[in-house]
Amino acid sequence: MKILEIRLVRSISRSNFSVTETHRGKLGSLISVLHQLSSYYRNTAHLAILSSLPSSCRHYPNGRDYPLDTLISIIKKPVLENITIREPMRKEMFGALEERPSAAAYCVSTTDRSMTSHLNNPEGCLFQGKRDRYGGVIVSSQLENRDDVSFEPSLTASLEAWTAEGVRGVWFEIHLLHTHWVPVLAKHGFVFHHGEDSEVVMVRWLPTDAPSTLPRYAHTVVGVGAMVVREDSGQLLVVEDKYCQRPHWKLPGGYVERGEDLSEAAAREVLEETGVRAELVSVVATRHMHKAAFGCCDLYFVVLMRPTSTHITMCTQELNDCRWMNISEYAEHPLVHETNRLFVQCYLQSKEYGASIRATPLVHSVTNRQQIIYSIDHGSRSEVVMQESKKQMADDGRETARCGPMQATSLCNGANSSINELEIDETQD
Fold this sequence. Notes:
- 40% of the residues lie in helices and 22% in strands.
- By secondary structure, it is of the alpha+beta class.
- It folds into 4 domains: 2-122, no CATH class; 126-205, 3-Layer(aba) Sandwich (Aminopeptidase); 220-358, Nucleoside Triphosphate Pyrophosphohydrolase (Alpha-Beta Complex); 380-428.
- The strands form 3 sheets. Strands 6, 7, 8, 9, 10, 11 and 12 form a 7-stranded mixed β-sheet that branches.
- Helix 1 (2-13) runs antiparallel to helix 5 (102-109), helix 2 packs antiparallel against helix 4 (87-97) and helix 12 runs antiparallel to helix 13 (405-428).
- The termini are far apart.
- One of its GO terms (molecular function) is NADH pyrophosphatase activity.
């Protein structure tokens, strides 16, 4: 601020009027206003109040002068009238500027110009972000970048505005190019929420009278294992991982990538590891485990797949071995984990009784997004049970017609008992 005062005095001394006590008083008034404004805008706004003046105005010391009315018009219309300041400060600012010639304009116009766009555009000083349905704001550093000078003042002003508006959660998506934002955000109460390859997200809960309801980041990883079974030979595609702690035969598979369906992930993993192409038939089993990779929970889906090719081209980077193995041999093999034995039993039971978990694609009625519903299909076994039940009921109905009321009641109760037993048996299977 001292440098600003020196520039102002030098500029006035070069002007075409004498520096009287009145002028010195007005000079002091202007400097006082600049002090107030800089304090209100966190020491940045005063750096660019007049920086939008035409470049020729900045040549005043070389002998060029401009009429007072012209300068005041230039200052007022594009800049000051668009700045949201307290009314008393506005009046004092205008009053001081209207008393000063172009020297005042020169001294400020030679300072930092980094805030010009924000002062010319009152909305630009605040982060806009996008609103979420929970009353929060999401700001992207790529869409609303700020330099080192303007970031913290914009952040402070935005936080004040959001708090007044009743905004709850504030999220900042920070690109790798803008990581200098991180310590400033941390200083203002933001914490890390999650990070990815080129971006980190920080968040702050604004309400002081309500507990945070901000969701934690995704804490579950999803994996898939493929039971690729050849129907002609009853063989199962198995692999031996190169980086396992101890040798064992396992199912080909891996993590489900973002945006992948289970069927897509399984087909991709099988092809990458073994060179075999396969398509989804059904879901065989699901395993849920805590404290897995990265401390996350783990959901592992075992799916039955039908091979559309059988030639193996093993991925030597990931596997030590890969082969087709008889299912009966795999179920008894000493190098097969107990969990995988259970998966085989689930498959064999599903095959025997015709019940399986099938995928049904649907469109969500609200979001209009594609989704897949996995539900139980009772298959041929269920149809047999239903046919047997219907036949039993028909036979009992004919028997009822030939007997009296008391006998009919007894027979009907017996029929219901038989149906219930069938349903229980099916559930147990």
